[in-house]
Amino acid sequence: MSTEFIMPKLGLTMEEGTILEWLVEDGTEITQGMAVLRIETDKVESDVESPGAGRFHRVGNQGDTYPCGALIGYLLADGEEPPVAQVNAPAAATTPSSSSTTVASSAPATSSVATLPRREGRLFASPNARRVAKELGIDIETVVGSGPEGRITSEDVEEAHKNPNAPRAISGSAPSSTPAITVPPILSSNGNVLATAAARQLADLLGVDLAQVPYDATDGRVTKDGVAAFVRAQLASGLTANKQSPSTEKATVVLAPASQTPTSIKKMSGMRGTIAKRMQSSLQDMAQLTLHMDADLDAIVEDRESRKSSSNANDSSNSLPGFTDYVIAATARALKLHPIVNSQVTAEGIALLPEIHVSMAVALPEGLIVPVIKNTTSLDLASLASETKRLSGAAREGKLGLAELEGGTFSVSTLGMFGVDGFTPVINPPNTAILGVGRLRDDVVVSKKGKVSTVKRMTLSLTWDHRVFDGAPAAEFCKSIVDLLADPSALNK
Q: What's the predicted TM-score (pTM) here?
């Protein structure tokens, strides 16, 4: 019996996807987990794997956009013919207009030139074709496409490389030697600027309006490198990386009218709007759960007092660790013991990251900023304390560089200074977990023999993405942090 192959829903916010490229030919025998096609959403390009095995029959058209759940193919058994069924129509927004068809048909037809295939203003070429063109040094703007609707394939690029005298297209944009050009942004069918997933993540992190960033002329999208270059240019010119266009800033303030006459209106800043957007997206896209666990810090208090008494007051390089520094050191070493927590969700699956870079939340008047402690496990307690103090100071003075905000694999957020015990921190994408640190307090304990004493305790609150790992691994990871805090000597190893 045939199995329907539908447009998948890769995230809670995904509504439709565009078939960028079929990765298998019609009639191919495929196995479960085999990549069948590549799709594009408003956030990411991703390969779609087959949920089962069988002979694949394509139904959807390459280049068209379909709503989630739409029929785009079948998995057939041996000898089975594809069923006669009503095929879901693609989204109307991606259907080429009659005017664009007329223009294409009226273009001069010769044996040596052709009109460039474009969709929504973007050169109609597969991602693999763009990659091959870059590798071979071919201007993809001059390659004639042989795919559906004139789409440029990797084979077209390779043919153009092998045969320089082959028919070439009339280039309608800047030469490929120009890495980036400033033009009105290229929009997808849903009105979003075309950009790579990495570019969107970095732009969200830094509060950058993608419509202001030049796109890569050879790729047709805004890239991560393009966002980074744009931010560097802003920093060099004395502008803030969080500045957004008036239209973007206005779009973040979508609040209902106040139920009372307000005493004043505080405008939502670009940073505040970015934080709101990221937190909402984080909660929508992840299955977040939080657990709380108490850690005894008597040994930490003793170690810190010992360091304080033995320190040289005249030695400015000797930094006394704060309690959060101890927690960060323990967390980094626990991440080494539990690699699944030091991870990211990608289109290919759960990516276990080899390097540990712990981010720490720093509160500013306009919102939170999260600088990154690079290679956290390589630092002893004194070096870690020096680095956290440096990053905190640079954050408050607005002197953090772009590299100091990138690459975090896990986050630590502290509210203990406000008298908070436990709370529910929200994961900072693309991380899969975050640790909340509460206040240091005195707890009364009663022994089995009835003896009453006090102990220094701190509540740790771990929020994790349940899609990536379950409650038991989360508890084991948090318990590792607690055990490491009970032995301060282990934090210098």
A: 0.50
